[in-house]
Amino acid sequence: MLVSLNWLKEYVDIQLNPYDFGECLTMSGTKVETLTVVSEKVSNILTGKILKIEPHPNADKLVVCTVDLGTDERIIVTAAKNVFVGAVVPVAVDGAIIADGTQLGVSDFRGVSSHGMFCSIEELGMNLDLFSKEIMEGIYILPNGTDPGLDVKKLLWLDDVIIDVELTANRADCQSIVGIAKESAATLNLSLGAFESYNKVESTNEIKEYLNVTIESDLCPRYVAKMLKVKKIEASPLWMQVKLLNSGVRPINNIVDVTNYVMLELGQPLHAFDYHSLDSKKIVIKTTKNEKIVTLDNKERDIDASMLMITNGTAPVAIAGIMGGENSEVTDATSLIVLESACFNKSSVRLTAKKLGLRTEASARFEKGVDPELAIAAALRATWLLEAIGACEVVEGVIDVYQQPVAIKKISLDINWVNHFIGISLSESEIAALLSRLFFNVSSENNGILQIEVPSFRQDIDAREDLAEEVARMFGYDNIPSTIMGGETMIGGKTPVQKYEDDLKNVLVGQGYFETLTTSFTSKRRLSGLNCATPEDLVPLVNPLGEENSIMRHSLIGHQLEVISLNYHQKNPFGHFFEISNTYRKNPKLGELPIEEKKLVLSTYGNDDYFELKGMVELLLAHTGIENPSFISGGSEFLHPGRKAIVSANGIILGEIGEIHPLVVKNYGLPKRTYVCELSFSDLYDCGSMGQKFVELPKFPASNRDLAIQLKDTIPAAEVDAILRKNGGNILESIELFDVYTGSQIPEGYKSLAYALNFRHQDRTLNDDDINPVVEQILAELKSALNAQLRE
Amino acid sequence: MELELIQLKDRCLADLKDVCELKALDNLRIKYLGKKGELTIALKGMGKLSKEERPVIGKLANEVREEIENALSLQKQILDKEEIDMRIKEEVIDVSLPGKKHFSGSLHPLTTTINELKEIFLGMGFSIAEGPEIEWAKYNFDYLNVPLDHSARDLQDTFYYEDDIVLRTQTSPVQVRVMQEQKPPLRIISPGRVYRSDEIDATHSPVFHQMEGLVIDKDITMSDLKGTLNMFAKKLFGEQTKTKFRPHQFYFTEPSAEMDVTCFKCGGVGCKVCSNTGWIEILGCGMVHPNVLKLCGIDPDVYSGFAFGMGLDRITMIKYGINDLRLLFENDLRFLSQFK
Ligand SMILES: [Zn+2]
């Protein structure tokens, strides 16, 4: 919100420089984002009244003006079309500086010396967005009656500092000059100025002859109406226009400007209706069904039954709290106005504004919550202004339908509790003083308990903790000491599974793998590249950001392929990646949250092969304490049918590994050989025995036997492996497959697997008599089960 | 016999002069001193000698053997050294040639940041709590004191799976779960993935990361919150770091604050990192709202506590000077490999 410092100073005597003031406001809770001078560079621009306009002797497009600058007269040559005799305009006399920093001198225009220049709003450095095109393009004409010789920088508040403040959602009361003034006064411990208001003792209730207001909804706690007879619709006075401009609001005419002025000043949105266009003696506030209304911005709006409308009893004339209707707009012909100062339910305004896609200055304020007590004050302030600027005459009487008066909140505050909660030690009177600064009505009985009455504009204060914050911020958060927590000492620390995750990551990094970070979203289209049937139990979002982010991923593989594709196309020659992240699936049980499963994914491309990745996985499994994992041919359809395996251990399937299917390679734009492995993180952890125990070094030597076994090449090595282990008994210490051979030495369709078997006994040295029967038994079963034989 | 031994010795020493290989030296040893060597053969005649001659010749034979052995050993040393010198000469390499490539990977910079933050809080006795990302709306909003009509609940701001199930917009629901499931005292941090319906750009992402912290105990004060977070700031950004607590508003806490730290880059004088303010906004914090405590079954008259939360992606970006959030999610190796 933009706050004019000059306007603020009318309420609070701020002596600090703007930056120090801004810092004070920030530190008491009103965050100052920026401080900007409207037009910092301009100087020596004066108001001048054009006395005479004569043609230029040597140029058709120029005129020579004689200008009264108050103390002297000057000749100014101009090409502007919109100047006229009697006009008061900004004159940059010689030596003056205009907004872009240019310094002016006396210049010669085809033989006539010009002692300065007339200025447009651009040259004055004012906000171009707030003026109509015609004003923007010509010389800025000041209102009739403006004295010549005035300093334009002061007159137009070009030296004003605009403070952009960020308000928190709870401080609806700060959405105005007076609201910020209250905070400023409290922060700086200064007094708050008052504003003038209509307070004439009226003898009649004339308004009743014109109007009756009824509220037929609980979405409008209060509706105040005041009526005024229009004397003249014209531009509002310059001082008012300037304050609007410096608040970022475009001046329109005296009536509209006053409604905006009071909204900016007090935070109460107002609306003026043309009484005669209402075509009715009543205003009814209610919801209507399936109506249409053309709003002031000339757009037709569809109204549904949830939207609160201001009606003339039958037809809507305004959307409550958002925007007036064109049918009751104040025009030059308006002679009688109804001034609305009302309070509308904030959720209702928010939802209506959202449905209509129409947010206004008024709706923004109502959405945050407007104090119902403000309605009458604002109506009377506006009435006073309209009368004071000569725009209207007052119709006596006021209509005030206040169906839900605000209850005054009272909170008792224990001084010891506040001090203890914040960690400070203030006396009862000090705390009372801090709260009084914020306009709380504090009564103290010197018994350690303060009775606090909350002003109606502080709708955010409900509990003692809210008051504690008020005390703390007035005392200054910076003045609160920093202390070390007392209480029980706590050990804290990571759980074993958290340690395991960190540990796994470190192993992978040490092996050259890069950790990736991918989003949790995917989509049917993205998954279609995997050439798989999409699973039934996906978790779709109701309101995704586009199709490609429409479901929660059930696997990490798709994103890894996207990462590899990106890197491949960035010409990174090879890559090893991993990620440990959640995947999501529908919960088969009704009324439960979806299932989140953490998975580990590895992916590689470049100079690796299947066995390289498998080796990495084996290393991880060994590190996890998983012994004898099995890799059995099989796995998802996106993997190469001849190069994929299900990884399991102790009968539990951990995941799968393989080369990406050539079709999927094409779909994703992947390098020809891409390998992935995805494992369930929790199963991995559960299967492992991470607590590594020391095993005593063997005292007796091992005996080694090498066996080359010839068998059909379709039989997986894993089956041989299983037979070796099963028959090896407890003296078989380890097995290593060290060679796989196919070729001319053996029959076609056969392969030879060369194993090194290591036998050892804990308590003695083994001899042939121990080992030979075991080997024979192994060979016998290999023959019977796999028709495999020893290769001599 | 005596002469025979002397001649044998002279012959051997003469032969030795021609030996310039270790192999030949070994042959020479076998020829003279081996089991069937000349000295052994010569000594076979000892039996024919008289009792008087035997010790004399025996002594001489030992002297000859010793002299030959010494000579052989000396020559061996020379040859050994020659051989080593030769090898060294042959084995000279250009030590300035490049080393063989080894590749190490790296943690994602976000993980590194999280690890750093975790360590700081683990050192202060915190535990790490985790919870679901797809969460009951009531845990994400209601229990956190978010008003029923608040816009954060809108479809424009929050992703929904079902009417009452959302993608959590903050890690605070984890705090709710911990408060409901465990008894105070509590000290937890909850780093994790959160979601908001923001289109991705240089500073926004629908998926991002937060770490929140929660302390609940008897007698926890706002000054404890300041003390704890001051210590955190100094540990993360250095001993000289100053903090500034500004009043703010969160539904979850009352009183609430935002904490700024002095810019670690310029030390507070103003630079590009801190947009010339000297300060960087780092986290939101406050005393846990009594409504939240009550909703979670903790008596606010007995216990109090504080909570804080920070954006991990943002801290990572500040820490490493990363100018575009999208880089964190792109996983280009040219990016990832900068964080070894
Ligand atoms: Zn800086």
UniProtKB/TrEMBL annotation, chain A:
Residue intervals of the TRNA-binding domain: 39-153
Domain B5: from-to ranges: 406-482
GO MF: ATP binding; catalytic activity, acting on a protein; magnesium ion binding; phenylalanine-tRNA ligase activity; transferase activity; tRNA binding
Pfam families: B3_4 (PF03483), B5 (PF03484), FDX-ACB (PF03147), tRNA_bind (PF01588), tRNA_synthFbeta (PF17759)
Segments forming domain FDX-ACB: 698-791
One term under GO cellular component: phenylalanine-tRNA ligase complex
Superkingdom as given in the UniProt entry: Bacteria
Protein name from the UniProt record: Phenylalanine--tRNA ligase beta subunit
EC number: 6.1.1.20
InterPro entries named among the record's database cross-references: aa-tRNA-synth_II/BPL/LPL, B3/B4_tRNA-bd, DNA-bd_dom_put_sf, Fdx_antiC-bd, Fdx_antiC-bd_sf, NA-bd_OB-fold, Phe-tRNA-ligase_IIc_bsu, Phe-tRNA-ligase_IIc_bsu_bact
Species for this entry: Acetobacterium bakii
Main location: cytoplasm
Binding-site residues for Mg(2+), renumbered to this chain: D460, D466, E469, E470
Family that this chain belongs to: Belongs to the phenylalanyl-tRNA synthetase beta subunit family. Type 1 subfamily.
Automatic annotation (TrEMBL), chain B:
Assigned EC number: 6.1.1.20
Subcellular location: Cytoplasm
Cofactor note: Binds 2 magnesium ions per tetramer.
SUPFAM superfamilies: Class II aaRS and biotin synthetases (SSF55681), tRNA-binding arm (SSF46589)
Subunit-structure text: Tetramer of two alpha and two beta subunits.
One Pfam family recorded for the sequence: tRNA-synt_2d
Catalytic activity field: tRNA(Phe) + L-phenylalanine + ATP = L-phenylalanyl-tRNA(Phe) + AMP + diphosphate + H(+)
Organism this protein belongs to: Acetobacterium bakii
Domain spans labelled Aminoacyl-transfer RNA synthetases class-II family profile: 117-330
PANTHER family: PHENYLALANINE--TRNA LIGASE, MITOCHONDRIAL, PHENYLALANYL-TRNA SYNTHETASE
Protein name (record): Phenylalanine--tRNA ligase alpha subunit
Cofactor dependency: Mg(2+)
Predominant location: cytoplasm
Family of this protein: Belongs to the class-II aminoacyl-tRNA synthetase family. Phe-tRNA synthetase alpha subunit type 1 subfamily.
